[in-house]
Each structure stands twice: as C-alpha cells, then as structure tokens.
Specification:
Bound molecules: phosphoenolpyruvate, magnesium ion
Number of strands: 16
Largest sheet: 8 strands, mixed
Distance between the termini: 34 Å
Length: about 575
C-alpha cells in the first residue's frame, strides 16, 4: 500500500468503539526455523516457565486476574506430556530442538483442528503461542515486546496473546487489529472486557499497515482504514472525538440511579467474572453485581482450584460492600474445563452441565460453597445455582450448602448463616415449575441465553436461528412473562440476564412485562440506563401486550423496531 492512498478493509468487529492512532506493528523478529538452537529443550522450557511466573505474579498483583488465568494455562502447556513426547520424537529423528518444537506444534494443532469446537480451536492458538515462545528462547531470539510502549497506538499483529499484553501499559493501547483470531478468542474477550476497540480476522489490513502511520478502526463494524489522507484523518478524528464525548455523556448519566421517564426505579446490575470486571462494575455505577460467573476460576487449568477465598474477597474489596451474587460453577456444554473430567457425550448441551455436573462431583460444589460461605463473613453475598431443572436438584444443592455450613461451624470459621440462595431459571422445566421452586428460593434470575436455546431446541452458538431475536420468539416471551408473574405472586425478586437484557430493542418489552432488574455487562450499563430513561411504563405495557399477541419472532422484531424508531431520535 502506498502512503496517502486510502484503503478500507473489513474484518470481524470484536470489541466496539472507534480508534485512530499510529499503527504499532508487532511482527515477530524470529526467522524461519532452521538455524541451530543454542540451548536444550529442557533449558528453554524452564526459562519460559520462569517468565510466565513473573508475568502471572505481576498481573495478579495488578488485579488482572483473567489474563493471569490464561497465562497459567499457557504455563501448564509448557509441561504438556503430548508436547514433550512429540518433541522427543523429533529429537530422536535428529531434528534441532527448535525444529522439533515447530514440528510437534504443527502435528498437535492439526489434531486439535479436527475437533469441531471453538474452545478446542482456541487451545490450538494457545499452543502456537507457547511454542513460538519456546522457539524464540531456543534460538535466543528477542520476542517482540510492548514493555516500553509510551505513546498511544493501535496494535497491529498477526496473532496476539494475553502474554503479549502482560507487560504493556494498557492506557497506551487505543485499538487492536489482528490478522487471525475469532470472536471467541481470548484476545477478543479480553479486549471487550478492557473496553479496547478491536477488529480480528483482517489479514489484509495487517499486511497494509505501517508502523507509525495513522490507522483507524471501528470495532463494531469491523472496518479498518489505512493510508489516510489528511482530509480523511481530520474527518475521522472528529468522529472519534464525538464518539468519545457520547460515551462520556452516557457514562455520566449512568452514574445517576436508573428510572423510567415516568419515575419507576429500575435496578441495573452487572455480570462480571473477576476483580478487574468488578472494578468496571463500580466505574459504570451498577446497582450491584447480579451475576459473578465463576467459570474463570476453572478455565485453562489442569488441576482443580482449592478454596479460592482470595478470589471472592478481591471482588468484595473492589465492590466496597455492594451485594454480589455468585453463581456456582456452570461448566459443561460449550464451556469445558481441562481440570474437570466430563464423560464424552453426544449432546453436551443436554448432558452433564451446570448443577448437574457439580452434584455428580460434589467435592467441587462443597469446596466452592465453603469458599463462598467464608467470604460471606466479610461481604454481602448471595449464591445462585445454574441449570436447575427440578426441585430435587435444588434440594440437593441446598443440602450441600448445609453440609458446608456444618463443616465451617465445626472448624470455628465464620460465615453468614442466613446467606440467600437462588436459582437461574434457564431451563424450560424450571420455568414451568417456578411456583414449586419459589418457596425454596430467595430469588430468581432468568437466563435468557439458555432459556431461548432450550425452548427453541436450537444451539445458542449455532447458525440455525437468525442472530436477531431468538429470545424474541413468542414462546420465549410467554415463558418469561409466566416466570415474572409467578415470582411477583410469590413475592421473590426476579432479574433477567443474558444477551436479551442488553438488547435495546427488548428494553421496552421487558419493562412492559414487569421486569425491574436487568443484569448486563458493565460496559452496556450506560446505554441501557439511557434507554430506560426515555421509556414510559404505560407505553411499555402496551408494547408488551402487543408483542405477546404476535405469532412469530419476525412480527415481534418488526413491532419493536417500529416502536424504537419512534422513541430514539436519529443520530
Ligand atoms: C444465560 O444462560 O442467559 C446466562 C446468563 O448464563 P450463561 O450465558 O453464562 O450460560
Ligand atoms: Mg446459562
């Protein structure tokens, strides 16, 4: 690409927001393998583990727990037996250590590529990153580093791993453009949780970008522009500034309590996964944490975590006394964990998932409940059980809670004896039985992602449903209305989480159905609060009535789009 000739590329928008800054092209300085390694595989492995230990300690100290967890997984991969076996085979065949690592990596990635799962594909990306670091150490070549970054840049790279970001000053990273990566790659998830605009899967932009030259990206649409003319740069700078002002204004408004236009107070709570996102929850003025996903604790590790009291206390400290709802481990389905053996199943979403799994491996549940209870002595905590399908499951989970309480009492350890227990209503059977479950619960939280998946018999990650509005299907709406009504009759609070909670199209509908507690990611709070402030509950009730009488999801979507055009001024 010649400088000054505008070129526009389209990749996958992975984290929304606009960025305009000089490109910083992070290309590996490692040449093709073929040169002699200057140390043994064993030495390089030990050195890499030490490097990971340093980064993990630094990230943990800085509250960047999610990144630390990923590096922990990378550290474990360094000692992976399969990797070691394959490398040794290469060495026996007379390959140089670096070439043996490269070959082993290639073979293992090919094996992983045969598995039809985003999660496993991500493991292949992790393995490539680990092997690339091993090879650089073997050849004593310098890895590209972000440690000295002092000015604002858009990072441009073929691949980027959380290990690359570990040493960077995140304030300098205005955006990320990657040749590879998917929406579910670690780096995309990380960029989203850090609020850094990102575009992935855009190889041509990566080839075209030149370090130091201005580059623009729109992380919502996936658009990347290079070779900016002076005029275009000025236009884009204005757009980025306006977008920044809009976000700031929304964030300012979000600090105020959320009320509808006619004065009904609405709770807007956050869904988080670690202390870093807990900090975001406070920044965005969430009323509480409505969902702490504890899966992060179990991701990317070969052995089970112990009583991770510290994890809960770190979050409590960030929240400064605010209530938080901890969901017990919801692993299985599309969320496997290497440290928990799950029998191979034809239909994992219909198999051992959520509470079903932890009731079958109760040592995991007991350990987690003990930690939660111990944290409850110092923080305002409630516990939520995922994927409940029957009263027996709820009773069994509550019995384990009683066991945990008895054990702690015997050990003389303090806890909140009146800790509140609730359930996710996300399986049709639980929704239909919610009147029977209610007397045993202190609260409900409707999980709109799974409820839609199981009601419509359609994989939530699959392509058999239109992206827009699977949760706007009339069947899903009827069930949500039923749960909200039963909860109101029984007098127990009921929130709603999942994608539907943050969809602006669904806000008037949910308010009209009687929902007064939304649970969304922290970054979605400002726009949700702004949407709520425009709406009148009388009008919302009319919209809900109309939507509930629609025969198809398409009709519901059209109705809501029409209503939205009338309430939101065109920008
Ligand atoms: C849901 O199912 O809507 C939900 C919030 O849980 P998860 O997406 O973690 O399954
Ligand atoms: Mg769910």
């Amino acid at each position: 690409m010649k400088g000054g000739i505008l070129v526009v590329f389209t990749g996958i928008g992975a984290s929304s927001g606009l960025a305009l800054a000089p490109a910083f092209c992070l290309t590996s300085k490692r040449g093709p393998v073929g040169r002699a390694s200057s140390r043994s595989f064993e030495e390089a492995r030990e050195q890499l583990k030490r490097q990971y230990d340093q980064s993990i300690a630094a990230l943990t100290g800085a509250g960047r727990r999610a990144e630390a967890e990923v590096l922990l997984c990378h550290r474990e991969m360094v000692s992976d037996v399969l990797l070691e076996e394959r490398v040794n085979q290469g060495l026996i065949q007379g390959l140089d250590p670096a070439a043996a690592v490269e070959k082993a990596c290639h073979i293992l990635c090919q094996m992983l590529a045969q598995v039809n799962s985003d999660y496993i594909r991500q493991r292949a990306e992790d393995l490539k990153d680990v092997c690339s670091r091993l090879i650089s150490l073997l050849c004593q070549e310098e890895l590209p580093s972000l440690a000295g970054l002092e000015r604002e840049v858009v990072l441009v790279a073929h691949q980027l791993s959380p290990a690359d970001l570990a040493t960077a000053d995140l304030a300098c990273i205005k955006g990320i453009v990657l040749a590879g990566g998917t929406l579910t790659s670690h780096i995309a998830i990380l960029a989203c949780s850090l609020g850094i605009p990102a575009v992935v899967g855009c190889p041509h932009a990566v080839e075209a970008a030149k370090s130091g030259e201005p580059l623009f990206l729109d992380g919502a649409s996936g658009k990347v522009e290079c070779g900016l003319t002076h005029r275009r740069k000025t236009e884009l700078a204005r757009l980025v500034k306006e977008e920044g002002e809009r976000v700031c204004q929304l964030a300012q408004q979000a600090l105020l309590p959320s009320v509808t236009a006619d004065g009904l107070p609405i709770r807007v709570e956050s869904s988080i996964s670690d202390s870093r996102t807990a900090q975001k929850s406070v920044e965005y003025a969430a009323d509480a944490v409505g969902l702490l996903r504890t899966e992060f604790l179990f991701h990317n590790r070969e052995s089970l975590p112990g009583e991770e009291l510290q994890y809960y206390l770190e979050i409590a400290r960030q929240l400064g006394g605010q209530r938080f709802t901890i969901r017990t481990l919801d692993i299985g389905g599309d969320k496997p964990s290497p440290c928990i053996p799950i029998p191979k199943e034809e239909n994992p979403f219909l198999g051992t998932r959520g509470i079903r799994l932890t009731l079958r491996q109760p040592e995991i549940l007991l350990c987690q409940l003990r930690a939660i209870l111990r944290a409850s002595a110092q923080a305002d905590i409630q516990v939520m059980y995922p994927m409940i399908t029957s009263l027996e499951e709820l009773q069994a989970a509550k019995q384990w809670m009683d066991t945990a309480k008895k054990q702690l009492a015997q050990e003389g350890l303090p806890f909140d004896p009146a800790i509140r227990e609730g359930i996710m209503v996300e399986v049709p059977s639980a929704a239909l039985l919610c009147d029977l479950l209610a007397p045993h619960c202190d609260f409900f939280s409707i999980g709109s992602n799974d409820l839609a998946q199981y009601l419509l018999a359609a994989d939530r990650n699959g392509e058999c449903l239109p992206q827009l509005g699977s949760y706007l299907h009339p069947a899903v709406l009827r069930v949500i209305q039923m749960v909200l009504d039963r909860a109101a009759e029984e007098g127990i609070p009921c929130s709603l989480c999942g994608e539907m909670a943050k969809d602006p199209l669904a806000t008037p509908l949910l308010l009209g159905m009687g929902l007064t507690n939304f649970v969304v990611t922290p970054a979605a709070i400002p726009a949700l609060k702004e949407g709520i402030s425009r709406l009148d509950t009388g009008a919302c009730r009319r919209i809900a009535r109309q939507a509930l009488s629609c025969s198809t999801a398409g009709e519901v979507v059209r109705l809501l789009q029409m209503e939205r055009e009338q309430t939101v001024p065109a920008r």
